Each structure stands twice: as C-alpha cells, then as structure tokens.
Amino acid sequence: MTECYRQFSEVLDHLADDEEAWLRRQLEYVCVFGDREYGEHDLPAGLDPEDADWKGIRAWRGKEEVESPWDVGFEYEFGNDEQGGWGRYLWFHSGESDAVDAVACLVQQFLGRFRPDRCWSLTWAFTCSKPAVGLFGGGAAFVTAEKIEWLVASDLVEGRRKRFDEERT
Residue 62, exposed/middle/buried by CB under 10 A (0-12, 13-18, 19+)? Predict the structure, then answer.
C-alpha cells in the first residue's frame, strides 16, 4: 500500500516580543467554563476538563473551519536566527500532522492583529512512499489579514484541462 504525505516548511519571521508572546498563548490548550478560560495546567481544584463548555487550542476557539480544535494540527518551533536574517521566528512544518489550513488560520489571525498591511505564504508538496500515478502534487496558501487564497496543483490542472476541452469543441 502506498503511503501519502503532505510536506511543508515555512517561517513567520522577525517576531517582536509581544508577537511571540501572543503566538505562544494562541498555541496553548485551554478549557473554557462559561466566560472563564483556563490553561490546561491552571485549572482550579474542582473543575474537571470533561465538564468544560469548550476545550482545545486557544487559536481555534470560534474557528469552525479548523477540523480538530483539540490539536494544533502541525509541528512548530520558536527560534532565533540573527545570522540568517529571520530574527526571532516561528517555524511551521509537517510531521505527524499536516494541517495547512490551521497554519493559514493562525497566520491570518496574527496578521490581522499585528501586521494588517502584510502578507504571508506557504507552499506544500504531496509525496508518496511509492511512485503512484496521480498522487504527487502540491499547493499553496496566500494569506492576508482579510483572506486566505488556496491554489492546489490538481485543481489547476483539471481546470486547465476543462478549458482546453471547451476550446476544442
């Protein structure tokens, strides 16, 4: 059987102190009871996480487009690369999870809060453990504070194929 993977690696660079703190906070798992929010390890005695009104990654609260709110959905690491030109950064990459939609959602929130006049992009590749026909490809997300635009290679090719056929008839 062929194993399929989506692989990506991208950074959000030149983070200021408040930006990094906000990102770290957004990636925390929280439990919500009424209008109170508690970090996973800060629950007061007597509150059971199973009784929470909502629980999951803080950034996904109220984001119905994120399929698994209890999971970050991607691998990440904060770092500092003064020599390489990124400064302090957050590195997003695939690992066991590969939710490019979750990455784009977080970055869109970040841009809206800190960099509304900027954009950010992410590209990914679909790969396989065996060279299976039709399973390779890739895509991209172009993110601004207002919207996320998606480009998937197979959709592009299929659209172009349809246009070609229409032009021939």
Answer: exposed
Q: Give the side-chain half-sphere CA count within 13 A for 123.
A: 4
Q: Which domain holds residue 112?
A: 4-27+72-168
In a shared domain, residues 86 and 46:
no
Q: What are phi and psi of 34, to 5 degrees?
A: 65, -125
Q: Helices (DSSP H) in the chain: which residue ranges?
A: 17-26, 100-114, 153-168
pLDDT band at 95; cut points 50, 70, 90: confident
Write down the pLDDT at residue 2: 81
Quote the pTM value: 0.87
Kind of pairing between the strands at 75-81 and 87-93: antiparallel
Residues 99-112 have pLDDT tens digits of: 999 999 999 999 99
Q: Is 18 exposed, middle or buried (0-12, 13-18, 19+ CB in 10 A)?
A: exposed
**One-letter amino acid for residue 96 of the chain:** E
Question: Across-strand partners of 151?
Answer: 140
Q: How many CA atoms lie within 13 A of 55 on its CB side?
A: 12
110 and 87 in one domain? yes
Neighbours of 98 (CB within 10 A): 19
Tell which wins on pLDDT, 82 or 150: 150
